[in-house]
């Protein structure tokens, strides 16, 4: 494989990152009937995240081409939890033609190091149960299932 680097995203990367976000939404829409289907939506405020000191947006590059992304974010927890802050990982994306090359693992490793530098020792993320490839990638990185979110659609009962 050609040399891959993981680096902090810059505002100049925003057009590519916004495209990645739309690709994530496109994949996840069929997994979640509550996502609006016929309009452009955004999950993230990526531009604000890039400049936020509590968020580290990163990109993976191979030979100068951005092929993946992710972010780590410091989040407050409810007062009855300890520690008071946790890490959260989101916006994980790797271009189709670069999947299976360890890019998501490299992004997660980079973000874990960033969390450690910020004295955070617990990281959480959410993933659709209907996304087994992503679940396997996170499990490979050491994540374990912790909570199960359930839903019911009363209109279809």
Can you give a write-up of this model?
There is one protein chain. By secondary structure, the protein is α+β, with helices and mostly antiparallel strands. It has a single domain, classed as 3-Layer(aba) Sandwich (Aminopeptidase). A 5-stranded mixed beta sheet has the order 1-2-3-4-5. A hairpin with a 2-residue loop joins β2 and β3. The longest helix has 15 residues. The model has no long low-confidence stretch (mean pLDDT 95).
SSE string, helices as H and strands as E = EHHEEEHEH
The overall average pLDDT, rounded, is 95
Give the strand content.
15-25%
Supply the CATH architecture. Answer: 3-Layer(aba) Sandwich
What is the general shape? globular
Describe the sheet with the most strands: 5 strands, mixed
Protein name: GNAT family N-acetyltransferase
Pfam families: Acetyltransf_1 (PF00583)
Domain N-acetyltransferase: 4-157
InterPro entries: Acyl_CoA_acyltransferase, GNAT_dom
């Amino acid at each position: 494989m050609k040399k891959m680097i993981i680096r902090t995203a810059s505002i100049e990367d925003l057009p590519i990152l916004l495209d990645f976000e739309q690709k994530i939404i496109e994949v996840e829409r069929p997994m979640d009937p509550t996502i609006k289907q016929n309009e452009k939506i955004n999950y993230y405020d990526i531009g604000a995240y890039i400049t936020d000191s509590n968020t580290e947006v990163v990109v993976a590059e191979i030979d100068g081409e951005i092929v993946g992304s992710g972010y780590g974010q410091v989040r407050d927890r409810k007062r009855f939890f300890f520690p008071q802050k946790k890490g959260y990982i989101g916006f994980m994306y790797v271009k189709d033609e670069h999947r299976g090359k360890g890019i998501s693992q490299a992004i997660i490793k980079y973000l874990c190091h960033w969390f450690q530098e910020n004295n955070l020792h617990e990281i959480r993320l959410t993933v659709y149960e209907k996304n087994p490839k992503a679940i396997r990638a996170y499990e490979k990185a050491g994540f374990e299932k912790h909570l199960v979110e359930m839903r019911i659609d009363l209109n279809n009962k």
